[in-house]
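Usage

Read records sequentially. Each one opens with the input sequence:
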Amino acid sequence: MAYTTDSIPDLVDDIAVVTGANGGLGLETAKALADAGAHVVMAARNQDKARIALAEIMTAAQGARLEVVEVDLGSLVSVRAAADTILARHDRIDILVNNAGVMAIPERKTVDGFEMQLGVNHLGHWALTAHLMPALLRAHAARVVSVTSTAHHIGKAVDPANPHLEGRYKPWRSYGQSKLANYHFALGLQAAFERAGVSASSLLAHPGLSDTDLQSTTVAEGGGGRAAGFFRWLAMSTGMKPAQGALPQIRAATDPAAQGGDFYAPRFINNGAAVRRPFLRPGRKNAIARLWEVSERETGVVMEIAHE
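and closes with the structure output:
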């Protein structure tokens, strides 16, 4: 039987944090979790869009428990401030969905000097997860869901000598690298949880081809070339609606049968029901070790996982 939002168990006791919850897949994820009873922290950069999204969820899910926290994943100061706000309000976090991201944009830097796609898609989420780790570990069995893309297949593992692709930047090359970093982060975090003997788990999801603002933004930014226009047309013509595209990450976050290290995606790679999929990329152990090295070095944030 296909997994739908009706499959989500009662989440009335859960606290969930969703990045990029002001639109697209993040909005649909926040809406589904709130409708199931969770208290949802909508972490978003654009506060005008976040307020509109909050009103939309409140209309769709009567009695929804929501709050908006501003976070710019391209700024480590903003990430730290957002985490501090969340931790001040919540002793524990049961679900963290690292959903926000940018795709195939022209080369630019974050305020910390990181290549923007790696900075937002991975390093910002690395820092946020690390800062929120104490609250995740206080939950009974927290889940951290990282959202990747089929583009991780075109990516190369982060090179510690040149993680920001200085002199080698291409929009799709960078996007593939960042999405492979999400993939390696999810697997590495699960391994770290297992080594520490904690009850938290890390899972991975990708939405397939979904018709969201991500493609429109890529076209508007002009970095993705002709491919961006083609993928935008393909998403509009054959892509899944955001509510369906969000189901793999919703399932990873909520399915009682899901386990740490599971990967959820559309049945037919880019379309179809949300199902558990196998991992196909080889050489993960060394790539994960390099990603940990780069992430800690660049952000100055250590991923500390231990019983309190």
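Summary fields computed downstream for this record:
- The mean pLDDT is 92.
- Residues 11-298 form a domain with the Rossmann fold fold (CATH 3.40.50.720).
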